[in-house]
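[Q] Does anyone have a clean structure-token version of this?
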Amino acid sequence: MNGLSILGFAGIFLVVLLLWGISMLREARSLRFMRTHEWTAEEKERILTAAAEGTATAMRAAKKIHPILTARHARLVVHDLESEAAEARRRAKRAKPGTRASRSIRDTDAKER
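[A] Here you go.
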């Protein structure tokens, strides 16, 4: 009986280890995809439209577009796209033609290129 219980515990341990390894591989694949993928304008638009309804909705939209993403990485993608859109709105708001701010933005953009 004692030998069977040890084998049972070893079996359970191996199954848990296998499941943990599979989840780590999926997480790594999702991270690699998130870092290397270039989002198209259509994909960004779909995610940002869903983000207007809430972060969870936007995460579901990102996962529907690319199922390889994990929930954590989908949340990061949504946050990055929202930050990018907010920055673009701020730049557009400040860049009224003929103002000192627009010249400053234009100069900064030229330096970045």
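[Q] Thanks! Anything notable?
[A] The first helix runs from residue 2 to 36.
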